[in-house]
Amino acid sequence: MAQLSLSFSAAFLLLMSCPSWSKYEPNWESIDSRPLPEWFDQAKFGIFIHWGVFSVPSYGSEWFWWFWQGQKIANYVQFMKKNYPPGFQYQDFAPMFTAEFFDAKHWTDIFVSSGAKYIVLTTKHHEGYTLWGSKYSWNWNAVDVGPKRDLVGELSTAVREHSDLRVGLYHSLFEWFHPLFREDAANVFNTTFFPNSKTLPELYELVNKYKPEVLWSDGDGNAPDKYWNSTGFLAWLYNESPVRDTVVTNDRWGLNSICKHGGYYTCSDRYNPGHLLKHKWENCMTIDKRSWGYRRDAQLSDFLTIEELIKTLVETVSCGGNLLMNVGPTHDGRIAPIFEERLRQVGQWLKVNGEAIYNTTAWRAQNDSLTPGVWYTWRPQEKTIYAIFLSWPNTGYVVLNEPLPNQGQTQVGLLGYQPLKWEPASPKGVKVFLPQLTVSQMPCSWAWTLRLTGAA
């Protein structure tokens, strides 16, 4: 009997060590079956940070290099002719990416004050320059040229000093002008020189060194996921990596994988469908309406107002999404005051209304069918409905058509204030009477939340 037991144990250990017994296999059916870690849906709000050599010219867009030398767009060409000497190359911008004012703890203070629960830093954009001293990006990284610092490491360390804030890292699969990628593209991606020698080693290096809990992939270069070996890498990420239990990934892992595969969907930049999706999704968007990277030529009208940002946050969460709000730091490492102001304003709003955002889920109705500008979330455990109204009505009341009140049981309150009076609306719903408040008495300045308990 003892011999039989030993043989069974040995066989079991042998089988468990076999790669075919890995929990997730390198195919989309298996990869997509992984449950999304709960923390991501509960977080709701994150900060995107687009920072790189493109922050030096800080003109037009973070796609500056491609628009200047790839597409040769006239205003970019003229900008260079006017401001830089003949023969100036994009690589000459790198020593000017100095980051002398970069203070990871100060950045983190801004992010914490915003109410965000995770950050996503561009460790490498399509220009190929890495913000850490990658072994696979010789002389084109922040340790060898420019700041001479590990920017990814500094920010990751500072963020992890706050238990409520998680580290996310963005990484571009392709690079516009890398000779190996261009060779593979010329071979219609039947060769894999670039992913095998550059992209995949960088990804493994990032995960093992910095242990991100969000891995935000981008930039497939019109190459399929098979070329990138995306499912093979994700199988390792979910089975063996140091963040296998907590990491979340998006859907940008190869041509035609967007909005189809991955941990959560982004679908497109600034995606905001306005209705509930069956799959978890994220709205990645920018405070600067025209660019992800910092622009010296930006006008005040190019920046979303705090009212627009709160509206976007509320709509996104009501429809089951997360909001990833982007800022673009300067080449010397500053978050411009207008970005800081917007982020801190969002945090002020969340201090009052965060109960209706964090740890909530989409309700049966996303917005009110009668009153415009009212969006719903709810907490099923507490059976609490939240109705967020974007403008304060001059009638002294707001009518909610979707909640079904129960006389004697339903209670309505204004977050940051106190309980309110209400009566059944006709033909259905709730008519909530709002208090007459001065500006200084208002619980917040931009959008307000009603909490309903005891309603269906």
TrEMBL record:
Swiss-Prot/TrEMBL site (May be important for catalysis) positions: 284
Signal sequence, renumbered to the chain: 1-22
Domain Glycoside hydrolase family 29 N-terminal span(s) in chain numbering: 22-355
One Pfam family matching this protein: Fucosidase_C
Cellular component, GO annotation: lysosome
Catalytic activity, EC: 3.2.1.51
Single GO MF annotation: alpha-L-fucosidase activity
Domain of life from the UniProt record: Eukaryota
Keywords, ordered alphabetically: Glycoprotein, Glycosidase, Hydrolase, Signal
Catalytic activity: an alpha-L-fucoside + H2O = L-fucose + an alcohol; a neolactoside IV(2)-alpha-Fuc-nLc4Cer(d18:1(4E)) + H2O = a neolactoside nLc4Cer(d18:1(4E)) + L-fucose; a neolactoside IV(2)-alpha-Fuc-nLc4Cer(d18:0) + H2O = a neolactoside nLc4Cer(d18:0) + L-fucose
Biological process, per Gene Ontology: fucose metabolic process; glycoside catabolic process
Residues in Alpha-L-fucosidase C-terminal domain copies: 366-453
Subunit (UniProt): Homotetramer.
Family: Belongs to the glycosyl hydrolase 29 family.
Role according to the record: Alpha-L-fucosidase is responsible for hydrolyzing the alpha-1,6-linked fucose joined to the reducing-end N-acetylglucosamine of the carbohydrate moieties of glycoproteins.
Record's protein name: Alpha-L-fucosidase
Organism listed in the record: Chanos chanos (Milkfish)
